[in-house]
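User: Assemble these into one structure.

Assistant: Restating your components, then the assembled model:
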Amino acid sequence: MAKELKQLTKRSENYSQWFNDLVTKADLAEQSAVRGCMVIKPYGYAIWEKMQHQLDVMFKETGAQNAYFPMLIPKSFFSREAEHVEGFAKECAVVTHYRLRTNEDKTGIEVDPAAKLEEELIIRPTSETIIWNTYKNWIQSYRDLPLMCNQWCNVMRWEMRTRPFLRTSEFLWQEGHTAHATKEEAEEEAKKMLHVYADFAEKWMAVPVVQGVKSETERFAGALNTYTIEAMMQDGKALQSGTSHFLGQNFAKAFDVTFLNKENKPEYVWATSWGVSTRLIGALIMTHSDDNGLVLPPKLAPIQVVIVPITKNAEQLQAISEKLAPVISQLRAAGISVKYDDADNKRPGFKFADYELKGVPVRLVMGGRDLEENTIEIMRRDTLEKETRSFDGIVEYVEQLLEDIQANIYKKALDFRNAHIYECDNYEEFKERIKDGGFFLCHWDGTAETEAKIKEETQATIRCVPFMFEQTPGVDMVSGKPATQRVLIARSY
Amino acid sequence: MAKELKQLTKRSENYSQWFNDLVTKADLAEQSAVRGCMVIKPYGYAIWEKMQHQLDVMFKETGAQNAYFPMLIPKSFFSREAEHVEGFAKECAVVTHYRLRTNEDKTGIEVDPAAKLEEELIIRPTSETIIWNTYKNWIQSYRDLPLMCNQWCNVMRWEMRTRPFLRTSEFLWQEGHTAHATKEEAEEEAKKMLHVYADFAEKWMAVPVVQGVKSETERFAGALNTYTIEAMMQDGKALQSGTSHFLGQNFAKAFDVTFLNKENKPEYVWATSWGVSTRLIGALIMTHSDDNGLVLPPKLAPIQVVIVPITKNAEQLQAISEKLAPVISQLRAAGISVKYDDADNKRPGFKFADYELKGVPVRLVMGGRDLEENTIEIMRRDTLEKETRSFDGIVEYVEQLLEDIQANIYKKALDFRNAHIYECDNYEEFKERIKDGGFFLCHWDGTAETEAKIKEETQATIRCVPFMFEQTPGVDMVSGKPATQRVLIARSY
């Protein structure tokens, strides 16, 4: 794919444009011919595959199993849960026909009116309805519980304003759907999965997150409680990065799913659902990357180490390749993905810029002098620091360096986040300061009115009631009414 | 999931019903509320995951990369390649609207007529059109070639008669789409991927296949050549299990995808596409399974070894569990998936029948006497042979046994297939014998007329011109005209 390495827009100039540039130039994704739908290019998809792999392991450790449910949902299923349909009806793709035909003047094809469906089908925006309709047949007794299924799939929400990874009409995600005998168990499951997401975000993506519970207004349509992880982007905005819902008995009642308890009495089943999507790639990009391109956490980087030989002639190339071969083998044996780039149709400078743009965590360069002096040049992408060191022990050095980079970018993001969380008790002050971004901890009186006023006047929303801060009662900064807790308020993607 | 182990229909009584019973009772899949769409249950999905994992490794070894393209395809893209639209227009799900609204009397929801799409969107039945529209931007020069992408996704073909795994309206598959500078390279790629499929079928699924090329009538819509692997089911019918297409320059021309060759002259790109689907699970079931249930090849079995203790009391259970613990660890360390089933709410007889139904390749049973005598009972699912042997060396014994079972079921299927391949030179004889199933090698004059006549009179079709048999010229058994080769004719799924 021929491509010029053009300058990215600088973050300080236009953060939003920088993001769009980066997504395109680093070959992560591009707009498709279909409104709001993106093509995830191989390099972007490789990051998603690494995410999927690790999340899948973590889900299975909790006892969840993968399954697959139909993509199309009968319209009538949708109406069964009142809040759910309310939440999704306005943005769903509707299948009405099942055949095309050649048009009369044979210049093209058209929908065949004779092939109209009796009942319209909706492309899943999420699968609670079709899954709970299925669970009805799978659950009879308490012995069938808990039932914990996850599916990796595509979903469709007809969004009006879309941005690659952050908000697209079609996106890839996983959705877990669990059924439990008791309220307590279901609530525990919803929280457990939130912790799994937080763990993944922090240990794998190196993205620190605030865990908390959504306000009623911001809940998932049909949930009694929505738990969330909120990450801070470099512009101080929040990105909701994963949610886990306690659904109560809403879907069990809507689809009549009961079980016989130990006393042989029928009870409605308790439910949760939880999901993360390709949006996580957006979070990854906007947390770590810089004006030179992507900065990827080593644990999720498709290429962890790139090695570039710089040589004058074929003979020297052969000597360097031979010297590097055992190092490449040893790194690969240690599970590290290595690219050895000895292509001769691109200059080293071009290669360096390209791998920086792509966020490869470690770059090794060996030239003629290195060969003579038994040295190698090593650059880390996160700090762009370069050093020339002895070739001996390079494998162990690189292994350690990858760990250091993972830890360093997490610490950097955490420091940034912590430096931009503020307590604020004055609404006028808040209105000024929110313009510069950041997370604000403010007392809230718990009413939807206050919440709506803040949103209208500042475009900021209550992201969650955070778990991580000690809660003290106080006075709502907007209404002046008593408040039991501080909530996290921010502008968001 | 409470479930009674009811008798399966016997294969000899009704092969088709046996298959349907088995899919349901072994918890592989079930019909959903949506016409022609199935739910793939966790046990069935676990087989698909194992298939996916291995195929993905094999694809990547050929240099293919994964990516993701939009599920919805603009109607106009469809019409660009004339044969392609002809092949798929009659069975595609069409999205016409993007919103629902509450109906007038507020009793339900309906399609919002104001939210009609300007251009209808088709749920992909296959992705050549959207992918070649994308490739146009990715390919400029011969340096961008070959381009080899694969995607794992769902597709939709509105089939009138559906059967779980074999033919469903929505199914899961992978589709590889490659672009090449020369005709020769593209043809080689199409054949290479056919060999990958054949390798996977034979070495992993233990399903012998006939590789060959389709007749013009049976080609993929838009292809110049379709290569196929055809497997023989136990009723002697053929199951097309994977196809690889040489698309020539058809899609490049339809979407105007050219590249500058080394002489800096524009040329149209050469294409292939190749796919296998959840249909492979159908092939797996119908090749190996028996009247007691599934027989799974160890390499794809979700549970490879089940261990059941039979004990009188808690003390004995503890002693047996302690004795078995190191064996379980060692088997798992060797990469073998082991289930230790000490649940006390089901009788051993029930467990045995259930694991037979589920096709677990090896079952180990240890009771009180085994504990005393340092023995263990071992049963292999493929032959149902049972023996009691020394507990010493059981890990190595099981490892070897799993390999033996894999080899044995392949040999059994191969022997069956080979015993049911016939040369036949007399059409009257053919018409009689085809009723009992089997693969027939017959001379064919190469005309669509003869092909249609055979299909109409016998419901059998030309599966392929096979590569594996030496070709000798002869006389077409139907028309009496000269024929250059024998083709493989069979009834099929």
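The first strand of chain B starts at residue 29 and ends at 31.
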